[in-house]
Structure formats: C-alpha cells, structure tokens
Amino acid sequence: MNFKLLSFGASFVVAALLGCEGAAIAPIPAFADGGLLRLGPPLPQVSHVPLEGHFIVKKGQELLGDDVVLTTGKNTIVLSTGKEAGVVALGGACLAEDRLILEGHWRYPRGTEIGLVRLELKDKAAARELCAGSLPTHPLRFVGSYGQGSQAVDRALDIEYDAPLIPYRGRFFSVAHHGACEPSDTCGVSPNTLETMLLSERYGATAMEVDVRVTKDGVPILFHDPGFNASSTRGSFCRGSVDSLTFDQVQANCRLANGEKIPTLEQGLDVLLDATLMDFVYLDLKVPDALVESSKLALKINKRAQEVGRDFAAVVALTKDSVTQEWLRFKDDSDEVPPCLVEYDPVLVGELGCVAWGPTWTAGPRTDDVKLVRASGARVVYWTLNDDHFIDQYLREANPDGAITARTGLLMYLYQKIGQVPPEVKEPSPL
Amino acid sequence: MVSSGGSLKILLGLSGFFLKAPHAFASTESPPEAPSNETPAPATPAPATPAPATPAPATPVDDPAETEAAVAAPLQPEAEPESPYPDLSESPYLDLSAMPIRRDSIFDAGYGTRGQVTVAIGGLYDALDPRAAAGASLRVPQFTSDARFGLGKAWSVTAHLNTILAINELAGGLSVAFPLIGEIRGVAQFQAGAQLGMLGAFGFESVIVAPEFRPLIGLSLPIGSMRWSLRGELVFAGPYVVSLGGATNTLTTPPPLANWNIALILENLLKNDRLWYAGVIMMGSTAIYQNWLLFPDTSHYDFYPRVVGGYEF
Fold first, then answer.
1. ipTM value for the complex
2. How far apart are CA A285 and CA A322, in angstroms?
3. What is the mean pLDDT of residues B257-266?
C-alpha cells in the first residue's frame, strides 16, 4: 500500500476522532461506599451561612483556580470558581469525634468533566461549634481530596477562609436559566423540571427562571418549546403543539429527554418555596394564554411565602406585547396582581408599576436605560449572560441586580470578585 | 463465476460507457483542434502508459477512412480498456501540469490548470439539533460559493464563502494536488479568512468577527464523468470579537477548533463542460459555530450532517 495513501487515511481517522468528544451525558457520580454523609446528622441549616466567604485555594488550584466563593442554600454548600465556570456542590454532615464532613461533586458545566469531592473541617473546635448550631470562633479551613468521574478522591484539596462576601441574598440574583443545565449541556437533567430546580441551587443559583406554557385544558406547565419534538421529549404519542394535548395526555404520553415528567407550574412553585432558599422565580410566559392561570398561582404562592415567613416571590415576566395586553386585562378584572417584570421596553417598567426590567444582553448593557429603570424604583436583571468576559463587563458597566445565566456559579463568583452591591430600590420591593 | 474484481471492472466499464465523454476533461480554453472521439494522448506520456498503436476496438469511430483502416488492421490481442489518464503510480513525482489540459473543478483534487477559473454557487442545509439553538428550529437553507484559479503545476488559488444563519464565512488560500496511487490524487489546501456576522433584529444589536483558518486534505477519484472526492477539514476560529450595542469584548468560551468535517462529494461533468455537485458532510461543531446565537457556550462538539449541492461553471 502506498505510504501516502496510508498517511491520508490515518489523517481522516484522526479528524474523525477529534469529534468523538461528543455530547455524552456526564451523570453525577456517587461514592462507591455510599459516602460519609450517611454516617451522621446533616449540618444544621443555621450553620450554613457562617461558612460563607472567600476562600483561598492552597491545594487543588488545577481544579479550582486560586480562590473560590462559598455560598449556601437549603442543605447545600456551593463552591464557585472562575475556572471553567466550575462549581462544587456539597452537603454537610456532623460525624462522631467532632468531624464536620462536606461531600459532593464538582463539575465544569460547559464540558463533560465531573468528579467527586470530600472535605473535612480541619479545626475540630470549629466543627463542634458549627454542628451545635453556634457561630464558629475558630478558623475555617477545609482539607480533603477530589477525583475524576466516579473514581476515588485521590488529589489533594485545601481551602482556607480569607474574607467575607459582599451581600447577595435579596440583593443580587444569580438566576438559573430554566434550571441547572442548558439543553446543550451534558449534565443529564432536563430544563424546567423539579429535579433541575433542586440542582440549580446546588450550582449557585439564588433565583430561577422557568418557561410556562398552557395545555389544551388550561393547565400551566413548565416547558420551553411550542411543541413536543424528538429532541426534547420522548413518547410515541407525545407530538404536536403543547396546547393540542390535555395535561392528562401530557402526563400519560410525554417524558423529557432524560426521563423526567413535565411538571405543572404549581408543582414547580411548591418545590422552589419549600425545598430551596431561592429569592424569586421568574415566570417566562411563552404565550398570553398562560397569563391568567399563572398569575393566580403566583399570587397563591406569594401569599403562602408570606405565611411561612419566606422571602420569596413569583414574578410574572411580560415577555412581549401580547402578554402585556393580557396582563392589563387581568389587572382590570382582578383585585390583586402578582409582581411583574418587563422584558422588552424599559419605559413600560415604570408605567406598569413592575418591579424589574429584564433586557436581553445581546443588545448591549444599555446603561442609560438601566438608570431610567432604577429611577422608577425597579431592578435590572439581564438574560441570558453566560460568557466570562461579558459578565465581567456588564457587572462593571451596569452594576445590575442580577442576570439569568446557565453558569450561576460563575456569575456569583464574578459578582463577589469584581462586582458592587446594587443600589437599594427606593420603595419596598417583593424582590 | 465472476470475481468481485471482475464485477468492479464491469461496473466501471458500464459507468464509462454511459458517463464517459472522451473530451470531457478538455479545457474550455484549450479545446481539441478537431472533434475526436479518440482518447487524447498525453502531451508528455508517462513511461508506463505507451500510446496504443491502434485505437481500442471498443472506441466508436466516425471517420469512414479510419473505420476502413481499423477493419483492415490485424486483430490485436484483447487489451484492457485504455484509461484516459496517464498511469501515475510509477511516477509519483510526475508534474501534473505536464498532463493533458483538463477541466478543473472545485472539489476534485484538480490539476491547477494555469489560468483556468472555476466558480461554483450552491446551497447547503444543516440539520441542527434545536437544543443547540435554545429550542429554536433553525432549518433554513444557506448559500455557499467557491472559486478556483489555476496557477499551474497543480497549484490553485481557492476561495470560499458560505452563510450560517446570521454569520458568514469567507476564506481564501492555496491548494496543491499530487498523485497518490493509480488515478487517485490527493490534495492539500489551506485557507485563511474570517467569520463575519451582524444581527440587528430579535433583540440583537450584534456584530461578530473571528479569524478563521482551514487546513484540508482530500482524495479524489475520477470515474468517467464523475469525480468523487473525500475531504477532511478542520476549522480553527477565534478569538471571537463581539460588539453588543457598542460594548465590545471577546468571547471566553469557544475552543479554537470550531468545526471538523468529513465530506463526500460527487461532481459530474455535463455536456456543456460545466458541472453539478452534491455531497454530504458529517460535521462536529461547537455551539457558537453552529448558530451564533451567543447563548450556548458549551465546549463540546455536536455531531450533525450538512447537505450541499450546486453548480459549477
């Protein structure tokens, strides 16, 4: 065989293999022995916030970079890093002999890299204080290790508390873009599901955007596309537009790409209120027909949040003029309306009495419009800002109140690293 | 029983009978002096392919005088049908420019016929997964165009333009062809250019620019009037400079290899000396290369097909 021909053949094979990185799912790994968290009670929720802060990475810079930001959620501890938009999702448990263990996984969400992490609070006195629900008076330093995939954790990790965070609860919103992962990501969890709501907080989200459509029988469900198709749903009889099937038919025939059920908006709101500590949910109404029922559910969940003492609000996004018109009709017919957010025209924010403006980032920071909106007492939350450089630029130039993003950990990291606390809104706001 | 090799010969022979036009590869700029159905002898015949003493029996002959001469000539031993091309296998470093002038085409490895210009226009269709476009179904035909200018000695200047939704790829470069084995020829090409895009609707006030570098290698095999080409290409792009409402920055996330592709393309010569082409390209692309919506930022490659077709003149 001619050598040149062989060389060419080999080159083609190499070119083909370059594409084999592929979009394979990278599922969340588990410890082979079940992990250590099962051996003790969970770290008290009250002891999560005292852990928050900037941490210096003393070992494990190849994974996390030079520093991380530690934030917390409901039974969740999150390390966010600027390296590859990486996040570490951890849970905590108090073991015998004053051991405070954090276990979970790390992920580079843009690719397929994932692995296990195990950390232990080095100072046993601090562990004893935290496990008793007291503020720690001793230094916070976690040592442990991490691994690749489901392999053993065999690479050293060491992080030490450095400085407190700037305020973010109720002040700066890292809003998960319909969940923890984009459809083009490889995390194995579909958008707009109950599963991804829980995962979002573990990846650093402090709020969540969900897409709302309505079924043939008027049930608001969480689904992005106008119709069911092979790339988003499974099921031989799960075809056609969303409003061509009743909710029962959707439940019976449709499963999402990773096997999940399509939830109702009501189910989603309950999970966000009861199972997370998120600040608000951004209801992205895809069709005007979804407005009335969604608004009623938003009012209901906001009342329940008040009753249980949670700072939580469901906010209706007026995404286009047809939705706004429907909202105005609903306002005329109702004694009460939920808080609203305008996505398109900043002038409407003040005119309609909405609490926020949600501009797309693809038209630039629009700093003059930001000032206009702020003057009306409302907040600014961009969508959907994923790129490191542009997040940096928008934080510096516009000082927004938050952004919808698929990289919630990265956004929180950069806010803590280079951002400023957004100005207070003039009037009391549900956000 | 007919061996597989025999079957192949029969198939190739049939394709030659139906598809082969003996003057098919003559240049439009240098037509044969007189119409002839005889296989043209190379200007500089390769040693391994001596011109036959008489035309092959199967070759149809129009001239009555030649017909009589052919009938009067003694019968020759049964010979393989003569290839219109010199046998390059024993002359791997043969200068292709010494071959008879042939019609260059866009995707075929080509001969770099000096001064010959070929331009192609066509369309392409990407079967994008809606997941890469935030759920949007972006299934619209795109425009593509290529050009080639022969420099001689198997070298050509090439240019390429295609649209991908809101972005355009424009590149130019050099290609060189060389013999590999038998009638299979190889080609190596390198193009440099840019991706350019602008969108002022749907909530975008965006301009994007990225340099692009496209190394390519390929194999070509002529069968009658058909030219089959198998080409592998890498598209390196970046940094992506993006302006959004006046705020300019570079995108952080796209990896340098934006796309790899393997193409199988058929070009077929028509009687008017022009060609149509059609092909399928298997591609792996980053999200940003597929649709430039600025939202997807994944670094892995999605695998999807592209269909191309067009006309060369």
1. 0.81
2. 11
3. 96
